[in-house]
Amino acid sequence: MKKRYQIEQQRAVQQFRRLATENNPVIQMVLPLAEIVSLLQQGVGNLLREAGLALMQTVMEEEVRHLAGERHQQHEARRAHRWGTEKGYCVVDGQKVPIRRTRLRNSENGEQRLGSYELFQRSGPMQLGVWDKMMRGLSTRNYGAVVKEFHNAYGIEKSAVSENFVEASREKVKELMGAAAG
Fold first, then answer.
1. What is the spatial distance between Cα 108 and Cα 90, in angstroms, rounded to a whole number?
2. Residues 133/143, Cβ–Cβ less than 8 Å
3. pLDDT tops 70 at residue 179
4. CA separation for the pair 127, 37 (Å, rounded)
5. Within 13 Å of residue 123, how many CA atoms lie on the same side as its CB?
6. Domain carrying residue 35
7. Does 132 share its domain with 158?
C-alpha cells in the first residue's frame, strides 16, 4: 500500500503536468552577461548547472503564481495562498543542491505541494550516476571528492552513496530479471 505522502507527491506532479500541457505558460529567464562571464571562468559546466538551478527556481515561481495568483493581488480562482518559504533541495547533475521554495496552503489549510519541486527532487539520475561511477571502480570512500561540482552540494557522504548504490543495484537486478523472464 502506498503511503499518503507518496500519493500527495503523485497528485502534485500530475497537477503540474496538467498545467504545463493545458496552459503551457511561457517562462523567460534573464541572466546578466557579467554573471555569465563570471560563471564561464569556472567552466561551461558550471554555467549550465547554475543556469539550470535558476531555471528550476523560475519554474517553481511560475507554478506558485498559477496556484496562488500574483503576489499581493486578489485572485478569485486561486486554489492556495502563500505561506512563507523554506529550505529544500533539488537534484542537479546527480547531486543534491540547496534551493528555497515557496510554501503554499490550500483551502483546507493543508500543505499544497508543488509538482515541479517534487520532480526536481527525484533522485533517479543521482542513483544512475552513483551506479556508473561505482561500476568503474570508484570506492565510496573517494566518492565525495570526485563528484562535488557545485560548491554547495551535499548528500555525498559515504552512507548516502551506499544507499544510492543499493537502490540502483536493486533497479538493475529488476531489469535483468525482467529481461531473463521475457
1. 27
2. yes
3. yes
4. 32
5. 17
6. 1-119
7. yes
Closest CA to 52 of 24, 89, 92: 92
pLDDT over 60 at 139, yes or no: no
At 109 the three-state DSSP class reads coil
Q: What is the pLDDT of residues 158-173, one digit of tens each?
A: 566 566 667 777 777 7
| CA 57 to chain CA centroid, nearest Å | 10
Cα–Cα dist 182/172, whole Å: 15
Asked if residue 105 and residue 21 are part of one domain, the reply reads yes
**How distant is the alpha carbon of residue 168 from its chain centre?**
18
Question: Which of the listed residues 119, 136, 157 is the one where a domain comes to its end?
Answer: 119
- Residues 150 and 90: their CA atoms lie apart, in Å, by 12
Q: What is the mean pLDDT of the chain?
A: 78
Question: Domain check: are 95 and 133 in the same one?
Answer: no
Provide the grid cell at 62.
511560475
Query: Measured between alpha carbons, how far is 54 from 74 in angstroms, rounded to an integer?
Result: 27
- Provide the percentage of residues in the chain whose pLDDT is more than 70: 71
